[in-house]
Amino acid sequence: MTNFKLYYTPTSCGAASFITATIGGLTFESETVDLGSHKTKAGADFYAINPKGNVPTIAFGDGSILNENVATLTFLADHGNAGLAPKEGTPERYRYLNDVAFVATELHPAFGALFNPSLTPEARAAAVANTERRINKLTALLAGKSFLNGKTLSAADIYAYIVLSWAGFVGVTLTPAAQSYFDGLKGNDGIQKGLAAIAAVQ
Ligand SMILES: N[C@@H](CCC(=O)N[C@@H](CS)C(=O)NCC(=O)O)C(=O)O
């Protein structure tokens, strides 16, 4: 199951899967998707590949797909060689899943709501307040540490990095603690390598 194609965009959450696969030394095919038209770069109907129409999508040779960040990131971390997710059955594994699920179900959707161009000013203010609350939860989890597990980069941090990178675009100011975590990840060698690999295939 290591032959796969990753559908993504360079700045969306799909980029976290690309970075995770790159850091782990995986060889894979990739193609960008226009999330407005839901066409792939080559012009294919993306809904025919992934009926949900979202990135990240990992398509396997047997026709099966993964299209949830928790699953794609964990699959890629498990098959790579960089230790981006702890081994199954260990206490660390459950804590990793706890972290990646927090990003997927709280941080990401809070930021995601701010991409809606038709929010009223009141709805937008509420969405910003909700996002700030989730950022505060993130920094409470971090408690000043550089990584969510307190020791090393994991796929959960890579996902959080991509989500936090949207802050300027959606008009959210990161708290000093969140900015410090983000800046540390931005300077991480693995993340730099992943971003360079994304730039190289555009
Ligand atoms: N349920 C998925 C959602 C992933 C998601 O929100 N992807 C966004 C990009 S960050 C997307 O593809 N949006 C376009 C669409 O869903 O049509 C997950 O949690 O991983």
Characterise this structure:
With 202 residues, the chain is of the alpha+beta class. It folds into two domains: 4-83 and 191-200, Glutaredoxin (3-Layer(aba) Sandwich); 91-188, Glutathione S-transferase Yfyf (Class Pi), Chain A, domain 2 (Up-down Bundle). It is built from nine helices and five strands; from the N terminus they run E-H-E-E-H-E-E-H-H-H-H-H-H-H. A five-stranded mixed sheet has the order 3-2-1-4-5. Helix 1 links the parallel strand 1 and strand 2. The structure holds glutathione. The site of glutathione (GSH) has 10 residues, from helix 4. Glutathione (GSH) is lined by residues 12-13, 35, 53-55, 68-69, 104, 112.
Explain the layout of strands and helices:
Elements: E1 4-8, H1 14-23, E2 29-34, E3 39-40, H2 46-49, E4 57-60, E5 65-66, H3 69-79, H4 91-113, H5 121-142, H6 155-164, H7 167-170, H8 176-186, H9 189-200
Bound molecules: glutathione.
